[in-house]
UniProtKB/TrEMBL annotation:
CDD domains on file: TM_PBP2
Broad class of the protein's primary localization: membrane
Annotated localization: Cell membrane
Organism of derivation: Pseudonocardia alaniniphila
Transmembrane segments: 12-33, 65-94, 106-126, 138-160, 181-206, 237-258
The protein's name in its UniProt record: Carbohydrate ABC transporter permease
Ranges of residues in domain ABC transmembrane type-1: 71-258
Keywords: Cell membrane, Membrane, Transmembrane, Transmembrane helix, Transport
Family: Belongs to the binding-protein-dependent transport system permease family.
Length: 273
């Protein structure tokens, strides 16, 4: 009875997953293949005329290659932000896990607060304006790093707790300093979690719409092109869905290729911690 129940429950879960994720993606692909007149009907049907190349060219050439510029901006933002998140969160997690002080409970409270308390947009803009980083790529990178630290610190800390302290002590006895212990000994052991953090945070930053809209209004990112296309081509759903398809492909490819590493990184820290 239990086996039959689990079978039907799993089947139902797969069906719901297909409805929630596969069907909308299929609708995006089909609409991006249609002509403007047929796409405006917003019907879930196979196109009578394939206009994929024409739609692709129109989207890329629109507004002086805005989509190309947006991809460049999003790539720079994603690479720089993820690099900062990985290094800083791993170092913070290492210190919190290895050095027990009276400040640890307070620091843990601040880390958890980063997951619970919603971002304050207006004060953040005021701070960025005060240090002359508002509407700059560096300012947005710092914002993305700050917002991504809490989740990453928790992942790294859970995995670092599984690494024996004897490894640190042996390196210190051999004359290694704190930075050398971390970068030469500890960080290579964190590869499963590093891959997990890189993929999860890269998708998060690449797909971010709110932060670039508020903190980098002068430079487009890929998600902001959706807003711009929708305002320029109010009835050209073929171009809008082609744009959605183009900016969906990179995160989708990352998840397909690194799916096992993501699961391994999360479960290893959770099970062993």
């Amino acid at each position: 009875m239990n086996r039959t129940y689990r079978y039907w429950a799993s089947t139902l879960g797969l069906v719901l997953t297909g409805i929630i994720f596969v069907v909308p993606f299929a609708f995006i692909v089909l609409t991006s293949l249609k002509t403007r007149q047929e796409a405006n009907l917003l019907e879930f049907s196979w196109p009578t005329e394939i206009a994929f190349v024409d739609n692709l060219v129109d989207v890329i050439q629109a507004r002086d290659l805005m989509l190309v510029i947006a991809f460049i901006n999003s790539t720079v933002l994603t690479v720089a932000s993820v690099a900062g998140i990985v290094v800083l969160s791993a170092m913070v997690a290492f210190v919190l896990q290895r050095r027990k002080t009276r400040w640890n409970p307070f620091i843990n409270f601040l880390v958890l607060s980063g997951l619970i308390i919603p971002p304050a947009v207006v004060p953040t803009i005021w701070v960025l304006q005060g240090i002359s980083l508002f509407d700059t790529m560096l300012g947005l990178i710092l914002v993305e790093v700050a917002f991504g630290l809490s989740f990453s610190i928790l992942l790294f800390r859970a995995f670092i707790s599984t690494i024996p302290r004897e490894i640190d002590e042996a390196a210190i006895i051999d004359g290694a300093g704190p930075l050398r212990v971390f970068f030469r000994i500890i960080l290579p052991l964190l590869k499963p979690v590093v891959v997990t953090v890189i993929v999860v945070q890269a998708v998060q930053v690449f797909n971010d719409f709110v932060n670039p809209l508020y903190f980098l209004p002068g430079n487009p990112t890929v998600q902001l092109t959706l807003y711009n296309f929708q305002s320029q081509f109010q009835t050209s759903y073929n171009l809008l869905f082609m744009d959605i398809l183009l900016i969906t492909i990179p995160p989708l490819v990352m998840f397909i290729f690194f799916n096992r590493q993501i699961v391994a990184g999360m479960t290893s820290g959770a099970v062993k911690g």
